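Sample A.
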Amino acid sequence: MSNLFWLTDAQMERLRPFFPKSHGKPRVDDRRVLSGIIFINRNGLRWCDAPREYGPHKTLYNRWKRWGDMGVFARIMEGLASEGGEEKVVMIDATYLKAHRTASSLRAKKGGPTTSAGG
């Protein structure tokens, strides 16, 4: 049994209206690339650790970066959250939020206030 994540046909149909138009050369398989991006983010992996079933890790990263810069993922989240015609409260599951272990020391290195006792 595979532990890989794959978007379903129904999920792809809900997402497709948010995709930017393809100009010139057709994009590689959207389902494969988006499933890979979700897999990487859900599991906190590096891009180079992407399973080969999702295609080249550089393709995954480039799509994530390009669509992120274009605001595609933000529009997807906003669009899905507003489906149903009424305003909804969107909650983020904190179990997927991760901070690097050195993040707390960055404030002290930049001369900002620290949260340690006595500091």
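Sample B.
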Amino acid sequence: MSNETFNQTTLAKYNGQDGQPAYVAVDGVVYDVTGVAAWTGGKHHGNLAGQELTKVIDEHSPHGRKVLQNLPVVGKYTD
């Protein structure tokens, strides 16, 4: 895992828009979803990159956390 640390403000910069990579945080870990076709443009089923999505993936995602296993980890998320 990268040593980079993100908070709400810094993570928001990685929204997949205007050439920025698309990152999402789940349970304190920041994942790079840039290369995932379903996250094109930083959007996926009404969710936006650059955000902390633990509640969304745990309560609303049909695939749950298993989809995170193959994503690159880019750092950790702190409040």
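B remarks: Residues 5-77 form a domain with the Flavocytochrome B2; Chain A, domain 1 fold (CATH 3.10.120.10). The radius of gyration is 11 Å.
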